[in-house]
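Batch 3, record 17
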Amino acid sequence: MLNRHKISLFILGSGIITLAIAFSFALAWLSPGASAAALAQSTPPTPTPQAGSATDTSTGLLSIDDQVCLDCHGTPGLTMTLENGEVLDLTVSAEEHRVSVHGQMGYACVQCHTTVGNYPHPPFQAASLRDASLQLYPACQRCHASQYELASDSVHATALENGNLQAAICTDCHTAHQVRRLNDPETGELTQEARLAIPETCAKCHSAIYEKYLTSVHGSALSEGNADVPTCIDCHGVHNIEDPTTASFRLNSPTMCSKCHTDSELMAKYGLSTNVLSTYVADFHGTTVALFEKQSPDAETNKPVCYDCHGIHDIMRVDDPDHGLQASENLLVRCQRCHPDATANFPTAWLSHYIPDREKYPLVYYVNLFYKILIPALLGGMAVLVALDFSAKVRSRRRKPEVTESDAEVSHD
Amino acid sequence: MTDPTSDPRLTPDSSSDTPPAPEPTPAIPIMTEPTSDAPIMAEPTLDVPVPAEPAHPAQTFIRFDRVQRISHLVLLISFTVLAITGLPQKFALSPLSQGMINLMGGIEFTRQIHHISAVILLIASIVHIIDLGYRVFVLRYQLSMLPVVEDFKHLFDDLSYYFGRRKRKAFYGRYSYAEKVEYLAVVWGTVIMAITGFIMWNPIFTTRSLPGSIIPASKAAHGWEAVLAVLAIIIWHFYHVHLRHFNKSIFNGQLSREEMEHEHPAELAQIEAGETSKPVSPDVLRRRQRYYFPIAGVLTVILGVSLFRFVTYEDTALSYVPPAETVAVFVPITPTPRPTSTITPTFDPAAEVGADTWAGTYEALFRNRCSSCHGVTAVGGLSLATYEDALKGGNSGPGIIPGDAEASWIVKIQSAGGHPGQLTSDELSQVIEWINNGAPEQ
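Prediction for the assembled complex:
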């Protein structure tokens, strides 16, 4: 009976000790920088536009020179009336094609228009101009299969599948005959010129968002020719543009913002802190979001991410006189979106990405300092006493192995 | 949560190296035959007289009563759960913490377990306060958990012993300084955790009157206090009651005589010297209870309501984040129509549309059927854009020879068939007839 108790107590005790030791190991992991980096690594990088992998498979039709097509299609006024009465312009500007990336590289009309190599052309029927584009754009897939595949995972492709014929297809962004070179053929990187033109491309359909973007700290810099700032694709991706209203997009967004905002070289140019991610993740909101992102990336959380406070397309400078979050009353408005009862003191409950020190958040700094002194002092004292007691106990046992412990301690000699 | 009170006893002088009471027969043996955990006594009644019999090693002493033991058990469980659910939140970025949080069903569920355990611990704290009041004001026990000068002497004695200046450790009374440190640490820790916990649980209420930075400061204090408490339990508590000597008295309520000699020699001596308090007479007890119970009742209600308010004071946040942007997504810019320089045929206002003339019929027919090649581009030198062009013809010869359809190249080519812009046979017959009629322009 007694033994059983002893054993179960021992098991309980050692279980707790094990847990406790595990916790103390956890202490060792406490390194904000490393942790933030871990968060950043955990998400797949947004695909950067790749060099067009032009794989030509239409050599059989190369014999038909563009001039053959242009003999007819170079003529202005060549049109076709579609079923809904819209008029499809069949004229192709030879000059436009010549200066396009395809023209420069010497691609022939029939490499895209593979079915019209002979005359008379096979019958072509389209319900509308949009229908005509939808019938023709799969031609891009023949050479640009990987981009085409990415795009078929996009929010645009989903909308199209769901019957929204206005959803963007290749030619809506790239055009059909005026396709421009977007990346540097040597580095594969987007050219500065192409980056600067991205928002205008998206604005063809998303003009209201574009107007907002132009007012933001990023958009206004871009319109002044600064290509450092994010354009649409830096957050939304290029071909596989994700639905930005999902839980997973939200949870991943701090990583997205931190791609630039933890880049010390880039941030140094503008005098911005790179601690924004680590300080966010150290806070209640950020901790929750980071854990959600890792453990249940599709679950909704009511904790804010970067853009819930800073805005989405209308991100302002924090020192903006009207909307900047540096002004407590502006921040309070943001707090109140989720904390409707919050009052004037509430915003300073958030450390505003600062690491507490004597000037910024001294109360927090001194609480930390207090425990940094108290914990080692108290536990050190305890440990010394425990060690002394333990060694005395071991010594007394060794000295009198035959005498029981209590006898040893009460003996008076 | 060992109790701070005990029967009032004299504190024996333990400054000498001699144990205060000499060995054998206790004046009032408390209980004999430790038939395991059978008889549980409601009060730490060291004063229940049992027929005296010679002391032997199996003799046991009641150390903790049922309330104390249950309180400890509740504290043990809630503290452990709080630590297991709390520390991973403090060190949320370490893989170990994340694994634990995952095992516990995610961060939100972990927080709920943490909150429930906190409420249980606070209920245990309220019970402790009420129970403590009973012991102090009704039973009139001494506050034997409070530190006294004696404790510093004991510490000095122990240090002397450790460094070989003394033959044995200090003679502890009912509670040694180690136990007092631990009890007071639990009280301090619980108060700190409750206050900072309340602040974090109710940040909107707090910041109505206090600066906002009290919230992160509370978070810092709550986390570090937790680290301190858990490490103190590991270093101090585990050593003293698990490692140094496995002390089970908080579970079975008893200490053996050997354990008493070993750990509480001064208390043992007092007991054996009969220096324990006289039991309170039933009349006095009843009178005191009559005062205490209503007060305790009111206090319980106040503390209970406070606890309820603690938990339910405010709805801190909405359960969802309102959409950050309400701008319309699809707002297409009206596309500028592509500039198409369509050839505008110059109609003769006098011409009758549909008349069997160039202007009335054949100009439109040739434009629609032939102009792709024989318009501006004039494939083969032939353009059919104007009447004159048609007459002139292309490289082969004149397109139209008025009055002589067979010699006109348009008819020659079309009659052969298979031309890209092939006219139907009706159209061709019509053209032939028109040419043979002199191919009138107007």
